[in-house]
Amino acid sequence: MENQTYDYIVVGAGSAGSVLANRLTASGKHRVLLLEAGRPSHPWSPIPIGFARLLDNPAANWCYESEPEKNTGNRKIPVPRGKLLGGSSAINGMVFVRGQAQDFDTWAQLGNRGWSYRDVLPIFRDMESYDGGDDEYRGRGGPLKITDTTEAGPLYDLIIKAASQVGIPRNPDYNGAVQEGIAMTQATINKGRRMSTAYCYLDPAKSRPNLEIRTNALTERLLLDGKRCVGVRFAIDGQVQEARAGREVIVSTGSINSPQLLELSGIGQPELLRGHGIEVRHELPGVGENLRDHYAARLKYEIGKPGLTYNDRARGLGLVWQALQFAVARKGLLNMPASPVRAYVKTREGLEAPDGNIAILPFFATPDRRIDKRSGITVSANPLRADSTGSIHIRSAKATEPPSIRFNFLSAQTDRDVTLGVIRIARRIMEAPAMDGVVSGEFAPGKAVQSDDELLAWALQTGETTYHPIGTCKMGSDPRAVVDERLRVHGLAGLRVADASIMPTATSGNTNAPSIMIGEKAARMVLEDAA
Ligand SMILES: Cc1cc2nc3c(=O)[nH]c(=O)nc-3n(C[C@H](O)[C@H](O)[C@H](O)COP(=O)(O)OP(=O)(O)OC[C@H]3O[C@@H](n4cnc5c(N)ncnc54)[C@H](O)[C@@H]3O)c2cc1C
Fold it and tell me: Is the pTM of this model over 0.90?
């Protein structure tokens, strides 16, 4: 067993952890160890279309599944998570959405000082480099390059026109002053390359002498000395090692693995820990609770007009042409985010901001996630802020055993109401005059499914996550909070959690941007506290 000493140990090199590793080593004053359970990289990761090859690929993905739950048809719902440098930012759909001002103001209203929109907006600006939008909202010189999806396609123009026909205006920048409206997606893609945090934050930092990055290093537990975290125990190729942190350990293993790592270390609900033979080191009942995700109904439409969908364009000679276009000019379908068009909508009168999200996937996939022979598109419809909560807890004391994930999707009436509302808006768009002669049928749920009860039953039986689990080590000061507003674990010294798990409530959109913001803000707080 080797023993090594650093100032800071960051566990998990994902969206947040990679940012921390970069920022904490920038001054040269601190020695940092970054531990990542996954591999350094994967050949499909830098290529935008590669996300489709990594969605269920255990070489770069933890490939978790939920527990079968009665309300969602006893299905095991896939829960992909990145397992490589960059974490989920290295396998995700590359859609860049910050969320609404109200999301962060809600966090602040819950008692978390320093997290209001006014507080986090400068961080969002500093972290990005984007050519469009208004300078009050958008950044030009940050490490993360964001681009607009410019691939012109008649399908996208038609859908945007159809949306305007049902009262949803085009929004030139949904990450700016207002989120509402329909837009082409802003993406973490630049010049044909995925902008993962491994590329944007770790690559520029990895040659610093004060940063040590160890991959294939599964952290098995945190080392506690009384109520202080002093280091970690990890395994590389089955060889167990320990590393010591003079100042702090920062857990950034994501919403699935952060509660798991705390529980394996004896931090959590006493009865649950004892049930797995783990000595209780620190009672913290909120660990693993408050799991929230965006649960989406996936409507599927047959497209009768030829040449519009990936089913038509990415097959046979079409695929060869797309590959050539990408090889020569970094253009075409291989250079696209998962869903090139998105809309933020209000499902009822009187709302201040949108509560529903519609994302267009310009293809129709088979149940085993391959491109179908038929031509179609998928319209993903979900509430923007989930009120239904579930949990993630260990199944055993073994770090290699996947935790048990229970989503409890659509258990909250608000989520059911918004789901129905957003499905109906999605249908209205697809039935608007602009789609005449384009849409030739509804594969799913199908025209026969009309009443609220029928639609809800279909959504419960067939919906999927949009891969945005959050909240399992939530920030706050109530009895179920795990970390305080500076992301320090309640009641323990030398330990923070900084990743998507600290979000007390969901942000209104995809979760990579806010996770990177959390990494940036955590680094600032760690450095402030060290000064
Ligand atoms: C398939 C998919 C598609 C998505 N699409 C989008 C999208 O288009 N846009 C968007 O904004 N968001 C998207 N998301 C969500 C977004 O990517 C995540 O919310 C975000 O990356 C979470 O960041 P994180 O830092 O919390 O965790 P992660 O980025 O998941 O990082 C956690 C890291 O910790 C490592 N780790 C875990 N356990 C251990 C351990 N015990 N020891 C050492 N290392 C460990 C993991 O391997 C991983 O590298 C998607 C996610 C997935 C999986």
Answer: yes
